[in-house]
Amino acid sequence: MQNLLYNTATWPELHALLITVNYTAKEVAINAGGTILKLIKQSFIVYYKILKLKLYYSLLKIHFLINIWTLLNY
């Protein structure tokens, strides 16, 4: 309801903890929840492209197995 995962980036307590553990974290700490969402989207795009290239240039056949017979709703 509150987008807790994104809003924690704005908590002063979290920043105090990060600075306590590593004093250089002050320069790289994220201060906005929207920044986290953008970083996640950018990372997904980058790793999606990397995985796509790895699968395309794979020397072996890749088999995917999906077990649908053990679903609870039969």
Q: β content, as a range?
A: under 5%
Number of strands: 0
- The Rg value, from CA coordinates, equals 20 Å
Number of continuous helical runs: 4
Work out the helicity level: 55-70%
Poorly predicted segments = none
Please tell me the total number of domains.
1
Describe this structure in words.
The protein is elongated. It has four helices and no strands. Helix content is 57%, strand content 0%. The chain has 74 residues and is mostly helical. The chain has one domain.
In short:
This protein is mainly alpha-helical. The chain has 4 helices and no strands.
What tags apply to this protein structure?
mainly alpha, single chain, 74 residues
Task: Indicate the topology.
Layout: H1 4-7, H2 12-21, H3 25-28, H4 33-56
